[in-house]
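Backbone shape codes
____________________
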Amino acid sequence: MSIAALEAKALRHWKKWLPKKVAALRAEGRLEEAVHGAALLAQDQIEHLMTYRHYPEWAAEEVALKQFILLPPEGDGLEDWEREELAELEREYRKNPPIAF
């Protein structure tokens, strides 16, 4: 995957899932630098895994993308309804914990 493709993928993902990070980097004037740096690190990781660990390209990309480009969402990544549903399940669980044998 080219550096330009990695940068585009990072920027798309970050804007959608890391809006606070993007806003902070943009305010500091470092967004392009951060995106480019992440793409370079990912490309280096891909090349390393393919050359020295004999990963197929798709597997090397999967590892590198997760590590440098497709970062986890800010916060818990849950919608409000999901958060409420989990809270309700937790309340029910605490009322009726499983019986240990």
About this structure: The longest helix spans residues 31-52. The mean pLDDT is 93. DSSP finds five helices and no strands in the chain. The CA atoms of residues 49 and 55 lie 6 Å apart.
